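help with this.
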Amino acid sequence: MDLFIKHYVLRAAEGAVSALRAELGQLSQRIAEIDGVVGVDLLQDEADANRFIFIERWQSAAAYTAGSQLIDKAAFKAVFAHLGAPPEVATLKALGAG
């Protein structure tokens, strides 16, 4: 299976680490429940608590496109309200186990 992977680097605004972490946690739960999602990871940088990594793994690009339409846009607004910079976004391809 060729997974479709979205990778986000998110930086909390000053004083918003806890709020961003909470919103990302709720968003990850919502996404994980969508058909076509293989998994969601939410990570916080140990050396920089303001930096979060959010990874979505989907069965395919089509599953991502369809599933993305099911996510309440208010959830994204809540996340963006706590960001200190625009997110870095990448689409990744898994190359196999290493």
Notes: The CA atoms of residues 25 and 91 lie 21 Å apart. The chain has a mean pLDDT of 94.
